[in-house]
Amino acid sequence: MKTLLITGGAGFIGSALVRYLLTESQNYNVVNVDKLTYAGNLDSLKPIEKHPNYHFEQLDICDGAGLDNLFNHYQPDAVMHLAAESHVDRSIDGPMAFIETNIIGTYQMLESARRFYQKSQKADFRFLHISTDEVYGSLGPTGLFQEDTPYDPRSPFSASKASSDHLVSAWHHTYGLPTLISNCSNNYGPYQFPEKLIPVVILKALRGEKLPVYGKGDNIRDWLYVDDHVRGLLSILEKGQVGETYNIGGHNEKTNLEVVKHICALMDELSPKVYSHEDLISFVADRPGHDKRYAIDAGKIARELDWRPVENFESGFKKTVVWYLENLAWCERILSGEYRLERLGILS
How far is 97 from 232, CA to CA, in rounded Å? Predict the structure, then answer.
């Protein structure tokens, strides 16, 4: 049984990965390293918190000495590095946190992993860095992001993730660290912190509040169900070629307005009111530097690693809306803190 060191395992994608590893895969000991910032939530790990193969360590990934101690103590066979500041609107308000976590934190992770790898001489050691399609910039009406698409980040968030991708690649080529990189499209699903589009719309619809849509709602994203993403990450870790990048997409290109209207239709079905939830849609000023379109070519991971998404747009979104309606207590505990579904990233 191998030991995985997972950073950011209390976040949205990280917690989905940890839950999957300990309930579906069962081939790993899991060490979850998380600072527990606003988006880190141990409630998301309740289903597996007492699992004998689960270990939690609260640590800032910018703490190099602390990371060295963890590597030496747990002797991991692989690292899956998900810890990151990830919300574009927050990066507009406060870019420094993104520089610190996404760039400095990734540097510290790479250095601790390098020291451990050189000392342990584990031939099968792997460092998988999980990134985003936003590093590629914005597409026009046609075309798809491929693994060799030039980087063109447009927000403080995507610029910090692009920087971390380049660091990972450099540590492979310069120091021989056995790294892999994944770039994914927009994730959605259960346990997503309610600052992102889908949980915001669901929770505001429940309250009968206006549903904010940026600009004309014609910005296009490719939507990837989080459990499909997790399966893709494991395929890369277990079968991917060291030094390679793999794009993971959901094959679900939709405009933001289409997404919001679909959620409204599901809310009409699952939580009906005397009015249509679509009547709550309100168009608001666009986000500064809002990329027009993202779309991923996931052909490489399909051909080489035999991965394809299981969920389609209809099945994944219905599962997501149902989960939020059945887990309002989880949402309310979050919304009792500093964040109350208000809009972020508005330039003064």
Answer: 28
Question: Rounded distance, CA 16 to CA 30, Å?
Answer: 13
Q: Show Cβ contacts of residue 27 under 8 Å, excluding neighbours closer than 6 positions.
A: 1, 2, 21
Say what the alpha-carbon torsion angle 332, 334, 339, 344 is, to the nearest 10 degrees. -100
Q: What is the reported pTM?
A: 0.95
Range 23-28 contact pairs with CB under 8 angstroms and sequence separation of 24 or more: 23/47, 23/48, 25/234, 26/53, 27/1, 27/2, 28/1, 28/2, 28/3, 28/4, 28/53
CB contact at 8 A, 191 and 15: yes
Nearest 5°: the CA angle 172, 178, 183 is 80
* Amino acid at the residue 164: S
Residues near 308 by beta carbon (within 8 Å), at least 6 away in sequence: 298, 302
Single-letter amino acid code for the residue at 146: Q
How does pLDDT run across 135-158, given as a tens digit for each residue? 999 999 999 999 999 999 999 999
Angle among Cα 307, 131, 100 to the nearest 5 degrees reads 160
DSSP state of 48: G
8-state DSSP, 296:
B
Q: Can you say how many angstroms the Cα of residue 38 is from the centroid of all Cα atoms in its chain?
A: 15
What's the mean pLDDT in 214-227? 96
pLDDT of residue 347: 67
Q: Which residue has the tokens 């296009």?
A: 220
| Distance in angstroms (rounded) separating the CA atoms of residues 27 and 4 | 10
Q: Residue 182 pairs with which residues in a beta bridge?
A: 130, 246
Count, residues in the chain? 348
Name the residue type at position 312. N
Tell me the average pLDDT across 46-51: 96
Q: Where are the alpha helices (DSSP H) in 217-327?
A: 226-239, 256-270, 299-305, 313-326
Residue 289: pLDDT band by 50, 70, 90 thresholds? confident
Dist CA 86 CA 98 (whole Å): 8
CA angle 343, 9, 205 (to 5 degrees): 30
